[in-house]
Amino acid sequence: MNEIRTLLTGRGLVESPRWHGGRLYLSDWSAGEIVAVDLAGGSEVVARVESLPLCTAWLPDGRLLIVSSAAGLLLRREPDGALVTHADLGGVGWNDIVVDGRGNAYVNQVGFDPVGGESFGPGSVVVVTVDGSVRQVADNVAFPNGMAVTSDNATLIVADSYRHCLLAFDIGADGGLSNRRVWADLGVGAPDGICVDAQNAVWYADVPNQRCVRVAEGGTVLRTVELDRGCFACALGGPDGTELFMVAAEWRGMTEAEMVSPGSGQVLVTQVDVPGAGWP
Questions:
Q1: pLDDT higher than 70, residue 129
Q2: Is the N or the C terminus of the chain less surrounded, counting Cβ atoms within 10 Å?
Q3: Which residues does the record give as substrate binding sites (predicted)?
């Protein structure tokens, strides 16, 4: 079994890890901060946005997109660090984001406010195309969470936490989605953040089961990394793409004043055999 080492600790509800330019970027939802950390554990705050959720993705040109759920905006971080509006999403409840190789951004929205105790309502997915237009491309996702795009730009995979599965859609030339299907039934698995590797397997983070799991299409479990706290998201990166980064914290519950134990947020890393591919 490969060693798991701690890259960063003392954080809050950590999410949305993204490998870019030799560093791992992640969001600390508790602090409203986007943090970059290098492989030696050195870190810096690169942006501050008061939003919960607070997820990010990189455009092909190297600019960072930030979902400001509270404002209903998709923000873009310019080279000078300024934050500008990339698109007006409207409403609230926006969660995860992935940008494909063509620059189309997929953003999902939870259909109710679980923190505020609202009754359940299914969520949806919109696409923000390169011209800035926004349109809904999928609905009836019980609780949309992590998303990933395969390396051929052909398939969007969406984690549906409440239905314990990964959904897949074919991506059209205009960014639209079709051919909805269950890519993997995860049994008791509750998928949160996900990433894809070069064998088209998916790693998914699982908060209640405190683990990160690699599955093939159809749901066969290929590898499991057990943790001592909830795993919120994962990303493949490092110099050769074979470092699995996992962001984890001690989960208390969605309706608690502090959803995770303060200071329990960590970035963990372990070596895997198959490098990352696709997006994020």
A1: yes
A2: N
A3: 95, 113
